[in-house]
Every structure is written in C-alpha cells, then in structure tokens.
## 1
Amino acid sequence: MDFKISVLVFVKNPSGKLLLIKRKKEPNKDSWSPIGGKLEMQDGESPFQCAIRETHEEIGLHLTESDLHLFSMISEKAYEGSTNWLMFLFDCKKPMPSLPPEIDEGRFKFFSREEINSIKIPETDRKFIWKLWDEARGGFSAIRADCSPQKELRAIIEEQI
C-alpha cells in the first residue's frame, strides 16, 4: 500500500467555532473534516510548511510557524483498505474572521464542537481525531491506528504529553 503524509489544520473563528470543509473529493468525499492536505514530498516540505501552505491555499489565512501548535501525529494503517497515512494535526492559534468562499475541494462552514458530533464525518475522525482534539490539543500525542476494513477500528496511544 502507498504511504502518504498529510496535515489537518483546526481553524476557529473568533467565537471558537471550528471551520470544516465538506469535501467534494476522495478521501472522505461528502464528509465534513478540518482543512489540510498532502505534503509536497518532492520539495522536502515539512509538516509545518504544508500546514501553512494548505491553510493559505484553501482559506486565504496567512500563518507562520508560531501560529500553529502540533498536537498529534497519527499513523493510520490501511485507511479505506487502500492507503497508509501519516497525519500531523495542528491547532491554529490565529482565528479566521469570516467564512471563506467555496473552493474546488468543497464548501466551508463553522461548527460548534457539539454540532460536530451530529454531522457526517469520517469514522476515523469520530473515533480518534475529535477525541484527540477534546483531550490532547494542549499537549502532544502519537497514535497508531489500524483501519483495515476486515478488522475493528482501533488505536494505540504510543505517547501522550
């Protein structure tokens, strides 16, 4: 299976609601998720550089490394039975003042954390990512998840600070 490296960036508005995109493309088509994307590995892009680039490309927000807090690293084995992912999750400290316009990848909406529990999101986000947001965004955690379709979805915390 291919191994891909990506970032997710958790952006909030001034009132603390979280910005999500309803994805028009796979993976996670028609589901809501934080913004992000794949590292440009051929350029030697770091996860921080990727988070800064993707945030600017997707929502027009200009960031520096100090605007981001890396709060988790998740290795997902066999996501959707086709790809292994290494994801870096960032809390964006700089608020997004207003809703960005729709882009080719999807449309945006702000949600309260409670509202996210009742919208369509990927199963791995529901089981792992939002739990990390709730419990570990002030520190750091490393997670290993087995997403093999023939197995029950499970994760192991490898480190938590």
## 2
Amino acid sequence: MQSFIRHRRLRASENIRRMVREHHIRAEDLIYPIFVVEGQGIKAEVPSMPGVYHFSLDRLNEEVEEVVELGIRSVILFGVPAEKDECGSQADHEHGIVQKAIRQVKEKFPSLYVIADTCLCQYTSHGHCGVVENGEVLNDPSLERLVATAVSQARAGADMIAPSNMMDGFVHAIRRGLDEAGYAHVPILSYAVKYASAFYGPFRDAAHSTPQFGDRRTYQMDPANAREAMREAASDVAEGADMLMVKPGLAYLDVIHRVKERFDLPVVAYNVSGEYSMVKAAAQNGWIDEEKVVMEILVGFKRAGADLILTYHAKDVARWLKGGDH
C-alpha cells in the first residue's frame, strides 16, 4: 500500500506544469514608467538604470510606439523640469513638462492608459514632496499644491492620477479637488503604503529629486512597520482611493499580501528602481539569468496578491512573453 502522496505527478512534464500553474504574468498586468525632460533630441540613458532613458518630447513617441507594439497598455509619466523653485511651480503649470507629455501621448496614442505621477519632489529646488518652511515639510499647505497639480494633469488628459507624496489627507484633498474641477471620472491610484526605503537611489538619479537637506522619514513610512501600513491604506480607502500601491515591492511582499487580504480594491506593486538596478547589474556581470530572475520576482508579486505591477522591466518582460509561456 502506498504510504506517501506523490506530488510530482503534477510536475512530470511541461504540459502538466502549464495546466496547473497558479499565477501568470501578462503584458496587460504591467505599468511602464517613462521619464520626460525638457530639451530637444534627447534620449539619454540614466547612468544607474541600464536600459532606462530620459526622453525629450520630440523623442518620446519613439518610446511610446515601442511600448504599444509590445502590448503594454499603461504607462506612468514622470516629468523632470528644466527649472525648479521652492514651491515647485512647474508641477501644475499648464505648459509643464508632464502636462505637455500627457497631451502629446494621448493625442498620438488615445487608447494607451496614461497615469500621471502626482508629487512635487521633481519640481522643488529642495527635493522634498511638499511645501517647506524653516526646514519643515508642511502638510496642509502641501495639499493645496498637490490638488493644483492633480487637476492640471487631469486637464491635460491623464487617465489616472497617482499621488506619491504621503502627506496626511492627500487622497481626500485630491478627490475633492478633481470632483470640483469636473474630473469626478478620473480615478486615483494612491501610493498608499510608501516606505522611506534605500531602494529609491536610482530613481532619484533619474528624476533629479534627491532631498537637498534631511530625509523623507517624517512622511514616508518606517520599513520596520506593517500594522502602520494597514492604517495608511485604510485612510486612503475611506478618502476615495480607487487603487492602492505598495512601494517598494520586493522587500514588502508581506505588506502586499496583507493589503490585498484586507481591502477589496486592486493592488499595485511598485518594482522600484533599486530592485531593477540590482538585477541589471548582476545580469551584466553574468551572475544571474536575467529573464528567469525577473519573471520569478514578478510572479512573487502576483502570488503575494498584486493585481498590477509597475516595473522598469516591463518592456523586457513583454518581449519575453512574446517568445514563450510564463
């Protein structure tokens, strides 16, 4: 009589493994970040992010065309202005870099879903995500600037607003501002759980957004805290968020799982710049199989509960998906 269970029966061939596979990565699961800069003829690789580029508006369509051809259905646009000031005045300017990029992309690629990152750090001379007075990041005055930015992005044609600043009450303020401006139909993807992480270094290189003093620990979360993440997410749900993001993703799979289990909203994992750059560096040194490692990481996000994944790997993943089954 058999005295043990033979689990290997369902692993015996590639066909049966595919039949019983629990989680899959699809191109439509991916959101691809794009950095847009002022100037002409610019396609400049970010030094700390191999394969990621700054694009001027006259080169932007080249990148977006490739994204569309690969079957990726959504992008998030980050603007890097030529001029910065204390209040981040370019963030909500009608002719700001991200507003111009949104209008251009939606005109040329109307079916592509365009998300606008809504923050001030790329636009302020001090590099913080809000209004600063006497060395302190002020919460409520920052909300006014964030609402103005969100409304200007919606007016430019953004399909979704993604506020990433972690000010208290930011979802409530932006939801009310969008509704009052006639954009009640525009959803909010809240960076609901955003940690003060060491994984953001390459992004700050790309966005030119390194704080010029102090750090962001008074508004971004302590990496040691998980219960606090539930409080942050619950606030954003109550204030009208349509989707919830956990950032970073890789070191916070437990948080992604807890958010998904507790809240009945789509959950987005942000596979951040440091996670991306570590994989790229190891692959370039021949230490890992890049495709296998990336796909394993992304499946991990899905297994934890992520519905969507914001990742700089998106174009590579879409190419790999065209070549095989994952």
## 3
Amino acid sequence: MNPIDTGFSCPIPGKGEDPWMSSLVARCAQLAMLLEVSASPKPGNVDKEHNYPDTCFEHFVASSVSVYPVLELAARSSSGIGALIRSAVRESSAWQQGGNTHFGAFLLLIPLSMAAGNLFYSHKESYKLSPEEFEALAARAHAFVRETDCEDAVEFYRAFDVAEVRVNSVDEFNLGDPESTAELREQGVTLYKLMDIARGYDLIANEWTSGFGRCLEGARSITEFMQAQKSRAENSVLNCSGTGINEAIVYTFLKLLSRHRDTFIQTKFDKDTADHVSFRAGEILSAWEKPSGHTRDFASLLPAIQEFDSELLKKRINPGSTADIIIAGLFIALLGGLRF
C-alpha cells in the first residue's frame, strides 16, 4: 500500500483538475505547524529555544514537513477522516523519532483541510477566505466530522499503534486494547460518537462536537493582533523590528490558555494543575492588555512570560492541547490571507 493510500478517502469530483488548490491548503497547514513550534516563549512547550529530553524542536519540524501528502489528499477528500488521521500519524512517525508531536493537531487539521478544499472548490475567483467565511469553514468541518462512521473510529484506534499519545480511554473502549475495534464494529460506534463521549474532558474532542469554536477564536485573535500591529507601525515614526507573528502567537497562546483549561495537562497531572496554569496565564495576559483592549509592548512582558515558561518546563507541564488549537487557528488565519 502507498504510505498515503488510506483506502477510504473519496476525492471530490473535479478537484483533481486543480492541484494548486489542494497544495495551497496543505502548505497553509504545514506553515501553521511550523509557526507554532517556532514561536517563543510559549510557556511549557517545545520551541526553537528549548527541547524536552525525548522530543525536540527538530522532531516537530520533521513531522510538519512529512505530512504534506496527507494534508494535500485531505483537501481533495470528502470522507475517510479516520484513515487520513492514521496516515498522518504514520507519516509523522516515519520521519522522526521524538514520539507524538502533532496527534491533536492532525485531529483538527484533517477535517479543517477537507472543509477548506470543499469551500475553495465553490470559489470562482480566488482561494482565499474572507473573515466572514471563517464561520462557514468551521461549519463545513463540523459537518464532515458528524458524518464519520464506524470505520473512521476503527482507523482512529489503529493510529494509537504508531503514536505515543497520552490520553484518557473513552469509557469502555480502551485505546490500548486492539480488541476494542471489534467492539466498535459490533456496536456501530462512529468516530464522532467517540468524540462526543470524550468532549467533557478532552479539549480537541470538544472542538469536534462544538463546531471548532476555539479554533476560530485563535484565528481571530491572531488576525486582530497582526492588524493592530500593522496599524501601529503605520502610525509610528519609529522603525519596527520583526514581523509580529511571534508576538501574535504567544499572545493568543496565553489568551486561550487563560480561558480554556488545557486537558493535556489535566490528563497528565490533574484538574487543579490545569486550573493553576490557566490562572497564571491570565495574570500575564491582564498585565499585557490595556483597558482599551490594546496591548503593551511585548518586550516589557517578556521577563514574566519567560519566568512562567521556566516554571512549567521545570515541572514538565506542557499545554499541548492549547498548542494544537493554536495550530488550527493559524491555519484558518493563513487561509484567510494572513501574511507577515
């Protein structure tokens, strides 16, 4: 079998005639993953400044590059989400030895890439989403995940054979037990149903069942931050250094982390630890934001962010689910024409 031949994915008629469209979607997804891991400091997570003992910055880079064919196929597909996820995990694992890097991100990027391809297929002029179309993108992704079937659930479980993922098992369906796939078929459990069961304690599952709202929140935050920075630069007599994208990602990371408990932390540690991390992120965010809604200079907040980063790294507390949401938000923003 070809490494990316999922066996289930169904290309949308006519899409094969325009490979540039699916390539654009895949490149936006790749760039989103690369920008997220490069942004620093994102408290607790691997970035270009520091690694974990077994997982390094370069592992994330290799994973981001390796999954291009799967993402490109997803943009041309209207079904087979589970098989696409397993293919993405397999490609990622084949190109790096750092274990799980992007499992949660794949769960978001695959249906969003399918939705982007579907939406762009109806575009007549250009492959670019207007801010008003962000909602339509999320709605189409939600429609795709709701249409998943039992085979998607089985493929999702098979992905755990190659991905080293820390996750709560879904009630009676043990993710580490191969016999669970037989039970899934016997009971006709779909992948969406599995996510619905897990939505109360898993941030990514909640995105699937609630319509990708936090991904949209991330996209809007990043876009608005970049627009505000551009406006300040145009009205300033000083020369501004940098592109602003690093600050936009760090700002949005803290914003989402403060508003939504990171379930990766909750799974690895406990609810109280996750709540404490959200509280600390909120403290820094409050100091960063002015009452008018504008932001203070990034450099003035950098010591506090670095201290928070060191604290989490020392305790090996990594907000992985929030990083996955950031990737999805960046992806949507890039589809909307974000450039820097």
